[in-house]
Design a protein that fits this description.
The chain is of the alpha+beta class and about 230 residues long. The chain has one domain: Jelly Rolls (Sandwich), CATH 2.60.120.
């Protein structure tokens, strides 16, 4: 009876977790010690300043691609993006390479886990050349199995100290679409780098916790001599 209750509880925990609304973060909330995946674009094939590979680009278990009607080349050289007139080089990149749709496009940058499972927590550095001109909207759409889970946008004023990070926690989503455009409209010109993730607990892992609790319960009852059961 206890074993059955624990299993039902674990399944309920998994169901609740999958239905919870993800939490939006604008600061780095993932400790390096807990992250399980990291994509800094440092292994990307680059031709001059531009990405020379195929979509999706995968590194550290995280895949990145462009979703657009007119996808353009991806500018990868952080030094070029950090040139005068561009703000991404100030707060939004680490290492040698980063991800930026050259000239902008009409779509989104899409993030998934390479193994196709749901995210638990994910965060990344962001930036955009538009901030040298004015304020922007950082827009996002979260999906799970082809259905929209969460949509929204973050207003980023010109020169804002909050520029530089976007993240989502709580699980229940397997794709992230993100873009950044001027408040007056225009194309997606999001720049991003240093994507880090924490995996979502699976039903199997939750059942493992329940079974561990059952084993501890058996041992305690046996030691106390209260009763035996199977």
């Amino acid at each position: 009876m206890i074993a059955r209750s624990l299993i039902v509880c674990a399944l309920a925990m998994a169901s609740v977790a999958s239905q919870a609304t993800p939490i939006v973060y604008t600061y780095d909330f993932i400790p390096d010690s807990t992250r399980s995946g990291f994509n800094g674009f440092e292994n990307a094939a680059v031709d001059g300043w531009f990405f020379n590979g195929t979509f999706p680009y995968s590194e550290g278990g995280i895949s990145v691609s462009q979703v657009a009607d007119n996808p353009r080349s991806i500018w990868m050289t952080a030094g070029a993006i950090g040139a005068p007139g561009y703000s991404f080089g100030v707060t939004g990149h680490e290492g040698q390479y980063s991800w930026y749709p050259n000239g902008g496009d009409d779509g989104f940058t899409k993030l998934t886990l390479s193994n196709g499972i749901d995210f638990e927590s994910v965060g990344f550095l962001t930036g955009n050349a538009y901030t040298s001109v004015g304020s922007t909207y950082l827009k996002y759409v979260l999906w799970d199995n082809g259905e929209t889970v969460l949509t929204g946008q973050v207003l980023i004023p010109k020169g804002s100290p909050d520029r530089g990070y976007l993240g989502f926690g709580g699980g229940g989503f397997d794709e992230i679409w993100v873009s950044e455009v001027s408040v007056t409209g225009g194309n997606n010109a999001l720049a991003l780098d240093s994507i880090e993730t924490v995996p979502e607990p699976t039903t199997i892992s939750l059942l493992g916790v329940a079974l561990l609790g059952l084993a501890v319960g058996r041992r305690r009852i046996g030691v106390n001599g209260l009763r035996n059961y199977t």
